[in-house]
Design a protein that fits this description.
Layout: E1 9-10, E2 16-17, E3 24-27, H1 41-73, H2 85-89, E4 107-111, H3 115-122, E5 128-132, H4 141-155, E6 160-162, E7 168-170, E8 178-182, E9 189-196, E10 202-206, H5 207-225, E11 231-234, H6 240-257, E12 265-270, H7 273-276, H8 279-285, E13 290-295, H9 297-308, H10 328-343, E14 347-352, H11 362-382, E15 386-389, H12 395-406, H13 424-428, H14 438-456, E16 462-464, E17 467-469, H15 471-486, H16 499-512, H17 521-533, H18 542-550
Parallel strand pairs: 4-5, 4-15, 5-8, 11-12, 12-13, 13-14, 14-15
Antiparallel strand pairs: 1-2, 3-9, 6-7, 9-10, 16-17
Length: 554
Amino acid sequence: MTPATATPMRTRTGAIATPTSEPSIEIAAPLGRRYDEILTPDALAFLVELHHRFGARRHDRLADRMRRRFEIGNGHDPNFRHDTRHIREDESWRVAGAGPGLEDRRVEITGPTDPKMTINALNSGAKVWLADQEDATSPTWKNVIEGQLSLRDAIRGELSFTSPEGKRYEVTAVETPTIVMRPRGWHLTEHHLRFTDRFGREMAASGSLVDFGLYFFHNAAQLIANGRGPYFYIAKLESSEEAKLWDDVFSFSEEYIGIPHGTIRATVLIETLPAAFEMEEILFELRDHCAGLNAGRWDYIFSIIKNYRGRGARFVLPDRSEVTMTVPFMRAYTELLVKTCHRRGAFAIGGMSAFIPNRRDPEVTRLAFEKVAADKKREAGDGFDGTWVAHPDLIPTARAEFDAVLGDRPNQLDRQRPEVEVSAADLIDVHIGRPITAQGVRGNVSVAIRYIEAWLRGLGAVAIDNLMEDAATAEISRSQVWQWIHQDLSTAEGDRITREYIEGLIAEVLGEAERREGDRFDDAAEVFRDVALGQDFPAFLTLPAYTRFLVEAE
């Protein structure tokens, strides 16, 4: 397929600039073993086409996000859109629904794509594996490309791994989960690949287009031959316009390699507050490629804090542990999601409880099973068609709760939930009536610093205090601290939450940390200060941390 003609660009003076060269992508990082199997000339040519055709629209959508966040911060609450009411009122349309291998999604396991975790996921017994290149992966150059290698080998039945201790890992399951790959969100960049457009402007590549493009280009045909398909989880969407952008990427990509329109299936995470007001519109724009929606609970909480961080005490949440799935605004969001999905023939997939077992501590394990069982029982009872777990030992617990509701049925799409009525006010009424405690503040500081330290070492999913933490939960922790400081709040014990107070907690956390040669605690504390104690509020902590610490030079 030949490159499209570039649209003329106007300069600041109004003159029309003309293209000066063909667009290109340059590798700006060292090449490890077998990297050439992923970064092939044909794969890079596909990435060039994706960036050439869709890069400018991506920047427009990110500008829309900033504008919307500014409006909410200045008192304009989100609402259901008037200009798309006709989509919501049209009863006739449905989404494409499940592709081959996605008909039963009652238990999905999530995790990063390094070889060991890939093999463990494929042996887990789950119905679906969310192969995560986003919040559960630290986007080091090594993780980005070697994660693609793990997926390539796994899809071809060629993956094995031997640990430094000599333990060998192999895929032994007769039936492996269907792979649904999660590329990075629109906001993230890949600095190790540099795109130059037809006007000679050089910029970092889009993390979304890199992750999607490399996986799709190398594996779509093999996945179809395996009886599955190229399936994706789409993260961090904030509008139906962003969904339309992904749909156009999908349609172009299918045409590019010559597979039927609609072969790709996407499941969208509803994990931002603006997206909760556009669920039907998101489904509509992706309808030829959409399998369902997922209730991304942790990023959703972070999104509420981010958008309302400066709007006064009425929008302040208490300790993170008090923001459960049973508080009213979270119930409103998840019940609306189930109703919306089933009305349009889409699967509703539940979120991930953070509790994980500890094989060395029976009491911790008992509590994890109890908490997860209650969470999954609620989801199955509410009408969800499946759910997430972060640890293989939790799969039987989650499956039992969904088996009890589903029986032999693969889903409960027939449960329409007509009794659910959710207003805009319900979605933003975040009052819980619980205090901020000294323990809650210290917990946020501790979790954020320990997670960031692991992330800087290349680990994206980390067990901390018997909870599975990823980028989303770290975002909650640091954004709560920022909001509590800027709202001039105090703990229930009477301590004002100030920068000085938090600095004292940082010193305590660093003093208690088990330090090792090569650890990144000092860097992690520096990142935390930047994103939690600064006057400005970075939209994502991973943006400055990535640019400063994870970008390698060639």
